Amino acid sequence: MIFRDRVDAGERLAAALQRYRDAPDTVVLGIPRGGVVVAKAIAVELYLPLSICPVRKLGAPGNSELAIGAVDDDGVLVFDRKLSRHIGLTDEDLARAAERQRAELRAWLSALGAGTLPPLDGRTVILTDDGVATGYTAQAGVETVRRRGAHRVVLAVPVAPPDTAE
Fold first, then answer.
1. What is this structure's pTM?
2. Which of 5, 8, 59, 159 would staple 131 via disulfide (CB 3.0–4.6 Å)?
3. Are residues 64 and 145 in the same domain?
4. Domain boundary among 96, 112, 128
């Protein structure tokens, strides 16, 4: 399926998520950056509250485009140990890279005035991104909202590898 843009992708996802329309214990969270646009379109179509899921890709030191994992703003770290070892990273290298990304994420969220998630205890979270490639950011997002009490997590992405898509 081809989408015009992220808004179109979100609107089409919303059509598949109609059972959550106006659901009192449901919130839509977007993974920055592209996932926030998708999330907003879903939230508008379904009359649901919207917020940002505080996760960020963890790029390899010296090659930020090579995704080796993802972090959240509060301790979640998902990474590919085999790839990390293959490129020569130690546990200390990973810890430093993760903390740098966390600090940048916190600063970015603070600048947006989006530093805190709404209460998630017992709620259904529709977690969105604009696509899944490695899956690290989505995994970190799912772990983040579960740690914060989400009862159910629905991952809604418009583009994913065939072996990932449902």
1. 0.92
2. 159
3. no
4. 112
Residue 132 lies in a domain: yes
Q: What is the Cα–Cα distance from 32 to 75, expressed in whole angstroms?
A: 17
Let me know if 68 is exposed, middle or buried by CB neighbors in 10 A (0-12, 13-18, 19+): buried
Whether 26 is in a domain gets the answer yes
In a domain, 40, yes or no: yes
Contact residues for 36 (Cβ-Cβ < 8 A; gap 6+): 30, 52
**pLDDT class of 159 with cuts at 50, 70, 90:** very high
Q: Could you tell me the two tokens for 104?
A: 């940048």
Q: Where in the sequence is the domain holding 146, given as residue range(s)?
A: 6-55+115-156
pLDDT per position as a tens digit, 104-153:
999 988 888 866 788 999 999 999 999 998 899 999 999 999 999 999 99
The count of structural domains within the chain is: 2
Collapsing DSSP to helix, strand or coil, 48 comes out as coil
Compute the Cα dihedral for 37, 132, 50, 104 and give only its sign.
negative
pLDDT at 29: 98
Q: Say how far apart CA 54 and CA 45 lie, in whole Å.
A: 23
The enclosing domain of 94 has a CATH number of 3.30.1310.20
Question: Which tokens go with 44?
Answer: 């508008």
Residue at 1 is within a domain: no
